[in-house]
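writing this on my phone so excuse typos. first protein, seq and then structure
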Amino acid sequence: MDEKKRINIKPGIPVQIIQKQDQRTGNLTEGIVKDILTNSSTHPHGIKVRLENGNVGRVQKIL
């Protein structure tokens, strides 16, 4: 599934995101999508989401 397309991201699905402070290290954070923050239908770096635990980042992998 393509994580760069907004249509594939839905609240309640498990994902791995990369947070702004982890972009250099590539450290991924796992969680459940609460809100979708990107308004455009696609984004080259991944769709920005807020997880249920409050972390914000771009989706790197849909689990």
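second protein below, same order as before
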Amino acid sequence: MAKNNIPADIAKLSFEDALEQLEDIVRELEEGSGELDASIKAYERGAHLKLHCEGKLKEAQQRVEKVVLGANGAPGLEPADLD
């Protein structure tokens, strides 16, 4: 397993693919038509997908920069404060 105990197959997913799988799981669980064991496994996978998506979003947030003007008027970049 990868960091945060995220399974390797999930850790390889893009944000978009992981989110799509998470949405599918949520729909299936909301329908409530599956067996209990399958629902528990789906919930566990959904929890890992959620962690993975949150990690991907945090990585993206850290890469976002904003343009600022220095004391001499020259433009520069610094990390954006998005919190």
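Residues 3-79 form one domain. thats all i got for now
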